[in-house]
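Late entry, alpha-D-galactopyranose complex.
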Amino acid sequence: MHPLIQRIAHTLALASLLAALPVHAHETLKLDAPKPNIAPTPPMGWNSWNKFACNVSEQLIRQQADAMAASGMKDAGYRYIVIDDCWQKSRDADGNIQADPERFPSGIKALADYVHGKGLKFGLYSDAGSLTCGSRPGSAGHEFQDARQYARWGVDYLKYDWCYTGTRNAEAAYTIMAKALRESGRDIVFSLCEWGGSKPGRWAQTVGHLWRTTGDIYDAWEGKKGWSHGMLNILDMNAELAGESAPNGWNDPDMLEVGNGGMTTTEYESHFSLWAMLAAPLIAGNDLSKMDADTVRILTNKDVIAVDQDPLGKQGSRALREGDLEVWARPLADGEHAVVLLNRGKTPANMKVDWELLGLPNDQKADVKDLWSKKVTKGVRGSYGGKVAPHGVIMVRIKAAP
Ligand code: GLA
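Prediction complete; structure with ligand written out below:
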């Protein structure tokens, strides 16, 4: 062979060999398009998993969308209706992902249209591995194809899980899907569900809009069941992560359990208050079509939601811990302070927050609003407090008076 032809052939062979190699994209993949500015405050919505697990269908999703619109949840700011695992069944001969035809006979596009028709947004779930956690087809190797499909269907939100990923590098795997979503032609909130193992708070700010920091929540005040954690356990794992959260890139301590029956009303008030202090995405996980009055009252408490959605987007932190008693504080955009007095113990406790802890002068006069009782106390100096129920909170907003 002529040496020149030989060189060309060699180059071509090398090129095709490189093309066939698994993607070593984590060294080189660039996210050319910036992250869309679609989660300046933590996303609010509903997700099927906590209550319904794999028992999802188009009737259920329509019913939950109807309930979100009719129950006051939509008015309170909830927007996304997200189908978690098990909506998928298979891929067709061209590799296109197919919804389960028995559970979603009208198809995903029709369902997304229905949800949009209610003035809501629509989300789906997939996984960076070969299979999802529920053993449905994952997106590994199909990222761009899936992202284009989601865009055609009208998907606004993707939760992307981490089962069956073998030795994949998390940053690399999530960056590929981030790129695929940004090139899909549609703005899609990207919710990373990697459970915190690779410390996503350190790399995901450029990749996604929220990232799970822990394994799964379960509906209990505290405890550990295999892979899952009670509410306080999740809280504790998030206490040190405040610096890693910011507008458009939020720590996600997992979805809400309010209304699912495993905690008392007092405990659910605490759960909701604490998630607001964490600037957590507020993704309800209960049956919106069967809510009692307390569940609606908790999930639609507009003062607590305003703390969660505060435009400064600064996650709160634990300012004080003495045994079972904790003070959590969060600075707000208007210079006010949100404070939670948390009693983890089994007996009532007198608790207070000292102005000093908030960086306010001791003689500063302030107006204090209790965000659960709605009582306003004016001209308070030095500290504020009261008797906190077992497993309860006092949550206030403190405004320094001029
Ligand atoms: C993982 C996730 C959960 C849920 C299930 C679905 O456990 O962390 O939030 O999505 O998978 O199988």
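The domain at 317-400 is CATH 2.60.40.1180 (Immunoglobulin-like). Will revisit in the morning.
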